From TrEMBL:
The UniProt record lists the keyword Transferase: no
Organism: Pseudarthrobacter niigatensis
Superkingdom as given in the UniProt entry: Bacteria
Pfam families: FecCD (PF01032)
Listed InterPro entries: ABC_BtuC-like (IPR037294), ABC_transptr_permease_BtuC (IPR000522)
Protein name as it appears in the record: Iron complex transport system permease protein
């Protein structure tokens, strides 16, 4: 994995100054274009949300969906189907938004356009913690998975940051990437040792490992809401910080940034978002990698726009993948984690070949 140490001019050749007025059209000459993309993403997300409530093994007309939401009749079978799909749709919105924000922030912290939250060992830490919870404590519920996965993700991120901070230069992007890759390999090996030694643990774990948003209810979603909200707040407020970090550590220090502290705060937001999303929906790949890349291709390198656009576009991708997975193999379905890989991989290859989305 390669990293860049400065803000390249790849793509449209523009870079947003860290001192520009945040989020205003006056300080951002491309503000109207970016606002139009954000509005379009919101419209697409609303449409996909409605489609998620309507489409499945039993299709429901959109008019009936609206009636089920505004005037629920418990004796109406279509209304019951719509209400059964609400937790699944809400989870798609939460997990997708969390993964999109986490991916965009991680690429900014690591200054690596091919980075995703897995670079700091979040997914590996969450997976090992879930396996340990199943093997040692017999955890079988999704609510139990939440706490183990979140704890594992946070612990892995802290260990990676501490290892990368050793030495005179501190936690540089290269050291973060190397420490994250090494820890991920080690944690994955430990997880495989447990899985090989316990068939029962393997049987329970494999359903979570695939990644998906089906089969969850409010008892799973509600415990994760505070973590997602806190992580989203931390990351969304870090747009100007990420712009400064993208210019390089020396320039960021010259602009008054405390580079180590800034990276630690943003990394905390990433852990909250990605750890909770992984706990709720399993290790869903490509969402945190492809969406920020596509957003950067459309809106440029300014993180004050990349972050909110990723927050909206990522759940649209996850819901779209889930909807396709419901209908391609009726009466069965393909988990969303598999569909995001099938959809995201060719899109990512196209973006990289175009070249404009590859630079930070």
């Amino acid at each position: 994995m390669s990293t860049t140490t400065a803000l390249p001019a790849a793509g449209n050749g523009s870079q947003a100054p860290a001192t520009a007025a945040p989020g205003t059209l006056r300080g951002d000459p491309r503000g109207r274009e970016r606002a139009a993309w954000l509005l379009a993403a919101v419209v697409v997300l609303v449409l996909l949300t409605g489609t998620s409530l309507a489409v499945g093994a039993r299709d429901v007309p959109l008019g009936t969906v609206w009636q089920a939401l505004t005037a629920f009749d418990p004796l109406n079978g279509d209304h019951a189907v719509v209400h059964a799909r609400i937790p699944r749709t809400v989870l798609g919105l939460l997990a997708g938004g969390a993964l999109g924000l986490a991916g965009a922030a991680m690429q900014g912290v690591a200054r690596n356009p091919l980075a995703d939250p897995g670079i700091i060992g979040v997914n590996a830490g969450a997976a090992l913690a879930v396996v340990a919870g199943i093997y040692l404590f017999g955890v079988t519920t999704f609510t139990g998975h939440i706490w183990f996965a979140f704890t594992g993700a946070a612990a892995a991120a802290i260990v990676v940051y501490l290892i990368a901070s050793l030495g005179r230069e501190g936690a540089t992007p290269v050291k973060l990437a190397l420490a994250g890759a090494a820890l991920s390999a080690g944690l994955s090996s430990l997880m495989n040792v447990i899985l090989v030694s316990s068939q029962d643990t393997l049987d329970r774990f494999r359903f979570w490992q695939v990644g998906g948003i089906a089969g969850r209810d409010w008892s799973v979603l509600l415990p994760g809401l505070p973590f997602v909200a806190a992580g989203a707040l931390v990351v969304l407020l870090a747009g100007r910080t990420l712009n400064s970090l993208a210019l390089g550590d020396d320039v960021a220090r010259g602009l008054g940034q405390r580079v180590g502290l800034s990276r630690a705060v943003v990394a905390l937001g990433v852990v909250l978002l990605c750890g909770t999303a992984t706990a709720l929906a399993g290790p869903i790949g490509f969402v945190g990698l492809v969406v920020p890349h596509a957003v950067r291709f459309l809106a440029g390198p300014d993180y004050r726009w990349i972050l909110p656009l990723s927050l909206v576009a990522a759940p649209a991708l996850l819901l779209g993948a889930d909807i396709v997975g419901r209908v391609v193999l009726l009466p069965g379905e393909i988990p969303a984690g598999i569909m995001t890989a099938l959809i995201g991989a060719p899109v990512f290859v196209w973006l990289v070949r175009r070249g404009k989305g590859a630079g930070l």
